[in-house]
Amino acid sequence: MGVDGVIGEDEGLRRRGCSCGKDDFLPEESFKSWGNYVQALKETPNRFMNRVLTRSLDSTELHEIKAQSQHEMKKNLSWWDLIWFGIGAVIGSGIFVLTGLQAQQVSGPAVVLSFVVSGVSAMLSVFCYTEFAVEIPVAGGSFAYLRVELGDFIAYIAAGNILLEYVIGGAAVARSWTSYFATLCNHDSDDFVIIVHSMPDDYSKLDPIAVVVVCVICVLAVLSTKGSSRFNYIASIIHVIVILFIIIAGFTKADTKNYSNFAPFGVRGIFKSSAVLFFAYVGFDAVSTMAEETKNPAHDIPIGLVGSMAITTAAYCLLSVVLCLMQPYPKIDKDAPFSVAFEAVGMSWAKYIVAAGALKGMTTVLLVGAVGQARYLTHIARTHMLPPWLAQIHPKTGTPINATIVMLIATAIIAFFTDLKILADLLSISTLFIFLLVALALIVRRYYVSGETSTTDRIILITCLILILGSSIATATYWGVSENNDWVAYVITMPIWFLATAGIAVFIPQARKPKVWGVPLVPWLPSLSIAINIFLLGSIDGASFKRFGLWTCVLLLYYFFFGLHASYDTAKELGENRIGDGWKRVEEGQSVSTVTASGVSLDEAK
User: Fold this and answer.
1) Which residue, 87, 96, 356, 98, is CA-closest to 242?
2) Residue spans of the chain under pLDDT 50
3) How many CA atoms lie within 13 A of 368 on its CB side?
4) Which pTM does this prediction carry?
5) CATH class held by domain 77-183+192-554
6) Where does the record place a coiled coil (predicted)?
7) Are 519 and 133 in contact, with CB atoms under 8 Å apart?
8) Whose CA is closest to 421, among 562, 547, 529?
9) What are phi and psi of 212, to 5 degrees?
10) In whole angstroms, what is the distance from residue 288 CA to residue 98 CA?
């Protein structure tokens, strides 16, 4: 079935409106009856192989998949909106809360170097995201990019972690909001939570204020994207003024003696903090999801993404320097570090300005996160990996109301009872995992085109990518398990990474050039992004990886019982599936082509 079929199907959806019947959640053929479902389960291995080997096309994401929503999103954002969305999305609890915790317990004044390392990694990821967002300007963000380059299954696993990233990130910010609100009211943060002693320590502090804040953000996010942009713009200006005040006023109270023991926890402490503080840079990917609502993606997205990240990184470094110059690192408060620091240097009145600015910043982070996560969920639901009810766009507001409400309900539940440290560590794993996949997908996009890349080049590419991943994992693993600073293993692993990257650059011609804006120094920059992201993963504690593994198991269970069959049926209706010749086509360097209603593949139509 081609585009016409999709449109016809959408008309049926429009007639149903916002109903919540079975067909709004599981309308696919596999779920029409128990007999169909049992038959679908029997075909799971073949269906799974089909989805693993199927890669989407740029045109499919831009037209057929996009058409699954009932209405178009409104294109009313400019590069100026995107810059402020980027600032609003990123500068929040990461700097105002986690800086204190990491400086006090993990890295000391060298926390500024932790921000530099995290910032470099984030900027490399920004480059990768920008090229994809310009070429494929849809609401799906990294999910759509991975579907095109790495296939359905990898995209689904990434999608689950994208959703986890947003839910956890929003919950963490909402809980931080309560801490600074308490400071503004001249109270301890525990005064505004309900402590349940019968529950485990990490889950015993119930936070009703965080739930209320998330509900208010939900209302703003569903009303209008442009309205959210205006609110974010005003709030972010106030936020920037407060940040400038903190930097200037803080330097007037600086004491260089506080820098005498710059790195008390050593190099290992710097990188451990970097892994956690990556949380502070999470949010810029939400801007890439707004590509579908951007007036001129090719011009606006590079300026918006790269510009906001450069401003954010500079602000983070200056703020962390100021904090550690104002107070000795052991005395830095882990919950509201900047407010307490000003109080300690005799500027008690300033703590209220800081707290108000922090609240403004966290509010915009929640708002931009709510806008971004709903658009991710919308595009995922368009493929039917999740119920298509979540893909509906409201005709009046032009926003995905169902997706917004569902995501923020999940955020509110997690924010109600989960401790910030657990949220930050788990969030960093999900984010780093997604970013390394996007960097990997960019290399594949530049050096592999179905039907054009030769078998020899494809084998060299696969070999080099395996070596890049393997050497990066070996480096991170050795760093994570070794207690000493022995460097012998790095002498082996790092040259392997270098030679593998050089192998791609020297021996494989680029099969696809970016049409408008491209990442410079490919494959070096995306390969470096892969290595840094994996290295930072090696600095995260084992308990967080266990939680990450548990979440991945939940994703796989849903996928094999529901998502796989729903997406398979949807792809079959669109003519994507070519059962039986998948392995042969991959071996020949060809993708499983989307077929139009006339039976001619889109590749052939070109």
Assistant:
1) 356
2) 1-18, 577-606
3) 34
4) 0.77
5) mainly alpha
6) none
7) no
8) 547
9) -65, -45
10) 25
